[in-house]
Specification:
Helix content is about 30%, strand content about 25%. With about 270 residues, the chain is of the alpha/beta class. A six-stranded mixed sheet has the order 6-7-8-3-9-10, sandwiched between helices. A four-stranded antiparallel sheet has the order 2-1-4-5, with helices on one face.
């Protein structure tokens, strides 16, 4: 763990170098407010964990940030660029990408092909454009880059295997490796250790740290508090759609509002 960053701990407090800024974001479902955040900043080049009891609104918040859902009101900016109303694939092109609780690998494509469809520089905008024969210079560069990333994630030997044959943990690794083909600024990981064999969890967490150390910002939803304590530079706590606390892991763990939320005194709406 790196030294705790010298950042104010109050919810909504400004950060020295925020890469992602959220202002007045609201989202309701059937009259129930799932997300209600006045202001939140994510500090650049940190691992920030987003935690909270079930139904706190964490997954909905992820969906709003990455363009998979639209907020009822509010906005958010990536490096000063407004993302409101921009669809998910364009949010990814601008540098913010995500993984999912249930992995979204393409099972009938090979591991290498899964990487190539995510390449930032490729001919055309369709999957077939990335996989078409008659590779030119850019395509060869994409294939080389994909191979190097797969090697870093221990998946190079499986490059020609169908992704559907991978284990759950290997699929998580492939999904994380694939987002690097976009050359992102911010990587959003939704429960990256869920369903992963304990043998692979430590390897996966080391890869997450490597992403931060390479200059990227990582935001993750995680329920395993041992993982949160071991990997996070900063923790944001949600309950009932609100941010109720934030700070370094040790500080947040002692916060009475956080303890109260996890004891069930906050009644949130279900994540949508």
């Amino acid at each position: 763990m790196r030294p705790e960053p010298a950042i104010p701990h109050e919810p909504g407090a400004p950060k020295p170098d925020p890469v992602l800024t959220v202002t007045g974001m609201r989202r309701s479902f059937g009259g129930l407010r799932a997300v209600d955040i006045d202001h939140l900043e994510i500090q650049r080049r940190t691992i920030t964990s987003l935690i909270g009891p079930n139904g706190a609104g964490k997954t909905t918040f992820f969906n709003l940030l990455t363009g998979f859902e639209a907020p009822d009101q509010g906005d958010h900016m990536l490096d000063g660029d407004l993302l409101l109303g921009i669809p998910a694939h364009q949010v990814a092109q601008r540098g913010m990408v995500r993984t999912f609780q249930l992995t979204k690998v393409l099972p009938r494509l090979t591991v290498l092909e899964n990487m190539l469809v995510a390449a930032k520089d490729q001919p055309g905008s369709s999957f077939l454009g990335a996989l078409r024969g008659g590779w030119g210079g850019q395509e060869r560069e994409n294939e080389k880059e994909a191979g190097e990333i797969l090697d870093r994630f221990g998946l190079a030997a499986m490059a020609d295997e169908y992704a559907g044959r991978l284990s759950g943990g290997q699929r998580k690794l492939l999904e994380m490796a694939r987002v690097l083909m976009v050359r992102p600024t911010v990587i959003m990981l939704d429960e990256p250790t869920a369903g992963v064999n304990p043998v692979l969890i430590q390897s996966l967490l080391e890869h997450v740290k490597d992403l931060r150390d390479a200059g990227m910002t990582v935001v993750l939803v995680e329920h395993d508090m041992d993982v949160v304590q071991s990997i996070s530079d900063w923790v944001v706590v949600m309950a009932e759609g609100h941010v109720i606390a934030e700070g370094p892991p040790k500080v947040v763990a002692r916060n009475p509002a956080v303890i109260e939320a996890y004891l069930g005194r906050h009644r949130g709406v279900e994540d949508q």
